[in-house]
């Protein structure tokens, strides 16, 4: 099965994000740990293609949404190799489409393509269109930045929290809300962020 097929078949609602992982953590170790919360279907820790080192985060898919929900409660903030791990649901339950949940991705490695962006960022929620990498019109080479649009601000907020300053293809990327054109740098989702901050 190809990576893209595996992504499409993944049950987003039963998938959790696990962050702040020590470099010694492996897929096997994470699988064994999460079995304490429920039946695990899949574990994926993205790794650099050159160094094979992971970026300190991964995704665990459970058989049921209830198991995933339970894992976020019992596994969050536990210590693993002297690091406190963070566990969150990787997608939020959203039924309405939020217009403007667009993210700017900066400092992208030339090897990062649209498929890699989709495979990485679809874990946080529904992506409404294929991620876009800005390219030179003549050479088609990446200009080092791109955009991802989500169907909810919850997904966009989670992607920023989990991926900003993380390494993708050996480069520390920037993930933030894209600016609206002609609006004095007002950010997409600023009201949602204020709501989130006050609610948390």
UniProtKB/TrEMBL annotation:
Entry superkingdom: Eukaryota
GO process terms (BP): mRNA processing; positive regulation of mRNA splicing, via spliceosome; RNA splicing
Keyword field contains Nucleus: yes
SUPFAM superfamilies noted in UniProt: RNA-binding domain, RBD
CDD domains cross-referenced by the UniProt entry: RRM1_SF3B4 (cd12334), RRM2_SF3B4 (cd12335)
Transmembrane segments: none
InterPro entries listed in its UniProt record: Nucleotide-bd_a/b_plait_sf (IPR012677), RBD_domain_sf (IPR035979), RRM_dom (IPR000504), SF3B4_RRM1 (IPR034158), SF3B4_RRM2 (IPR034159), SF3B4_spliceosome_assoc (IPR052084)
Record carries keyword Cell division: no
RRM domain sequence ranges: 14-92, 101-180
MF terms in GO: RNA binding
Keywords assigned by UniProt, alphabetized: mRNA processing, mRNA splicing, Nucleus, Repeat, RNA-binding, Spliceosome
Any one cellular-component term (Gene Ontology): nucleolus
Cellular compartment(s): Nucleus
Signal peptide extent: none
Pfam families: RRM_1 (PF00076)
Family membership noted in the UniProt record: Belongs to the SF3B4 family.
Protein name listed in UniProt: Splicing factor 3B subunit 4
